[in-house]
Design a protein that fits this description.
Low-confidence stretches: none
CATH class of the largest domain: Alpha Beta
Strand content: 5-15%
Structural class: alpha/beta
Bound molecules: zinc ion
Order of helices and strands: HEHHHEHHHEHEHEHHHHHHH
CATH topology of the largest domain: Rossmann fold
CATH architecture of the largest domain: 3-Layer(aba) Sandwich
Radius of gyration: 23 Å
Strand order of the largest sheet: 2-3-4-1-5
Helix content: 40-55%
Number of strands: 5
Number of domains: 2
Shape: globular
Mean pLDDT: 91
Largest sheet: 5 strands, parallel
Length: about 350
Amino acid sequence: MPFTEILGQEKAISYLKTLVQNGRVPGAFLFYGPAGVGKAKTALEFAKALNCLDPQARQTGEACGVCAHCKAISQHTHPDVVFADFLYQARREVKKDFSSGSYEEELEKELAKQQHINVDTIRDITAKAQQKAVGGGYKVLIIDEAQTMQGAAANALLKFIEEPPAKTVWILITSKRTAMLRTILSRCQPLAFAPLSQKNVEKILQNNQLATENLTLCATYSAGSVSGALKADNALTLLQEAGLGPNGCSPQGPAAVAAGLSRTLVAARQEAQAILDVLLQALHTAWTHTQDAQTQRRYAKTLQQVENYKRSLNRNVSPALVVETALCSLDGLNLPLFETEN
Ligand SMILES: [Zn+2]
């Protein structure tokens, strides 16, 4: 995917293209902004532009997308470009002698456990950073979820991002800049990524064959992020499957939604969170659109309740119970959950 196909990040991309053109590339970046707006895609595209074999493409700051280097980077097989995220880490941690099930099952289990980019992964990447670039271009080391690095991992990284050798570029990616350690922040050139417009979220879903019948609704509830739209889609589907829809709700609705959540706690919690996010956004929109003071007060009160329910998800409360209680609190509000804003 060339830079031109990444929507809504024109400012960040135009800056990166200039760097490719003039060859003055800082040794360490922090790409920050909401989750699901194209930071990782941009990082990989930047790695391609820096390593592309087509001199004409490089003059424009773009990658050709078809040379051997561009292709290898797309396939995550380029020896000089590392893209480390939770999946990369889980792959390293799946035991070779896993006892049961298939490799995919083991990987999925391992992936669900990932919460921090750990020191072993950082050591693995720094070792790769020190190897000579075999392609003759740039070494590009990308670390996603960089805010999850704790003391040991961050310390292991520090001296490498301090003064990287020429033609070595570190790109740290985060959706929670405020959670990053100061020592790391101060060594990186920050680059902001903006939330996406609703139209761009819709276009990206369509371009990636992710559009569902709830396309416009998902974009409405996406908070400017593609991953937000996918979570909203999942939430809306769970609500619809339980009988909630444009024509109201069956009396069993809240209990049926709760019963439809996944069996595993981690997945159920994420689904519950997505449902509550949809409710919060719908409540907020309804609250800002109503003129009637009494109705406004009711919306405001319910908003606060649902906020509290959402917080309780992070404590040890059952996601099913939280979802059911939250949906029951909407009783009598006639909240337009399935109406798009126009
Ligand atoms: Zn190329």
